[in-house]
Predict the 3D structure of the following.
Amino acid sequence: MANVIIVGAQWGDEGKGKVVDIYTEFADNVVRFQGGNNAGHTLVVGNETTVLHLIPSGILHEGKRCLIGNGVVLDPKIFLKEIDGLKKKGYLKDDSQLVVDGNVHIIMPYHRAIDIAREHKSGDKKIGTTGRGIGPTYEDKVGRRGIRLVDLINPSVFARKLKEVLPEKNFFLEKYLGQEPLSEQEIIEEYTAYGERLKLYLGNVSSLLHTSIKQGQNILFEGAQGSLLDVDHGTYPYVTSSSTVAGGASPGAGVGPTHIDEVVGITKAYATRVGEGPFPTELFDEMGEKIRAVGREFGATTGRPRRTGWLDILALKEAVRTNGLTALVLTKMDVLNDLEIIKVCTAYSHKGEMLEEFPRDFEVLKECKPVYEEVEGWQQDINSATTLEELPAQALKYLEMIEKWAECPVVLLSVGPRRDQTIQLKNIFA
Ligand code: IMP
C-alpha cells in the first residue's frame, strides 16, 4: 500500500495531469486538496484531448474514485460543465465515482467580479491571476464569511448567508471597484439550482479516505499549481492563495501526515511561469520563443502565452525542501531535443555576492542574476524512447546531473504528451 502526493516543483504547468493519469493505474482514489479551476490539465489519450480544471484527471479511468477535498474552492458552474462534458464523451457512467466534500468553499459571482476588477485597478502592480475568483474565495474562507457546499445545498441557510455577505460585497464592488452591484435574487435562483445538482456528489472525503486506508487501498493526492506559487513558500505576493506544497494535502483532504508514504515533485526539463512575479532564468530572446513554440507553452486555463526559461536548480531545491520530496518526475525533456547547448542555473549572483539558496526576500530575488552551467545537448529525437538504454548519452547525463543537483532521484521521465511516451525508472507504488 502507498499513499502518494504529487506536487508541481516549479510555478505550475509542469505536466502533472499526465503524471497523475499514469499513476492513477496504481491508485484506488485520486484526490484534489487545494486550488480550484485556476488549474488546467490537458490529457491526451489516443487521439482525444480532454482539458480538466477541477475534476481529478483520474476520472478518465473507470472504477477509480475521484475526490475533491475540503481544501478546494469550487465553482459550481464550471464543475457541472465538466461533468456534462465528461458524460458526453462516455466517462463518469457511475456518479459514485466522483465525490465532493461538503466543506469545500464555493466560488461565488462576487468573488470572480472582485478578482477581475481588483486586478484591473492594480494596473502594473497586478498579480496576473487567472481571474477565476480564487483569491477572494480563500479570503472569505479565512475571514469566516464563506459559503460552503453544505450551505449551498440547504436553501434557507444559503439564502441567509448570502443576505449577510452580499451587501458588503456590493458596497466594495460599487464604491471601491466601480462595478455594477449583483442581484441577490438572481444569485439565489442560479446557485440554488446548482446546489440541487451537486447533492448527488456530496460526501465526507476525510472519512471516505480513512476507510480506504484501513482497507489497504492506495491514494493519490493531486496537487495543483506549483510549489513556487505556494501562499507561504512561493514568490509572495506573486502566488496563488492556497498551500500548494505537499503539507497542504493533510488539512486539504483531512488525512494526517502519518498516512503519507511518498511525495513526488514534477519538474519540466526547463522552466515556465504564467502571470507576474520574479522568474530569474526567464528568456526574452529567440531561445525563449523556441521553447514556447516547441513546448506548446500556452495556458490550458487562460490561453496566455507562458514565460519560458532555463531550469533553475535553486528553485527546484527549494521545492525539494519545502515539500519533503522523495522523488522527482522530469517532464517535457523532448522539447530540448535539438538544442546544441542547454543551460542550467546553479547559483544566483546578487550585488556581487554568489547565492546558492533561493532567497526568501522578494526584493532580493527580483534583483538576482542567474549563474549558468552549460550542458551539451543530445540533438536527436527522444520521443519514442521507452527505456533509459534508448536515451542518447547526453540526455542521460542531463537527467543524472539534475538528480545530483537537486539531491533527489528521478523516478519517471516524460518524452512526449502521450501516455506511452514515458520512461518509468521506479514504480513508487511498489
Ligand atoms: P490565481 O490562482 O488565479 O489567484 O492566480 C495567482 C497566480 O498563480 C497567477 O500568477 C497565476 O498565473 C498563477 N496560477 C494559478 N493557477 C495556475 C496554474 O494552474 N498554473 C500556473 N500558474 C497558475
Summary: Residues 11-13, 38-40, 127-130, 132, 134-135, 224-225, 229, 238, 240-241, 274-275 surround inosinic acid (CB under 6 Å). The domain at 105-198 is CATH 1.10.300.10 (Adenylosuccinate Synthetase, subunit A; domain 2). The chain has a mean pLDDT of 96. The first strand starts at residue 3 and ends at 8.
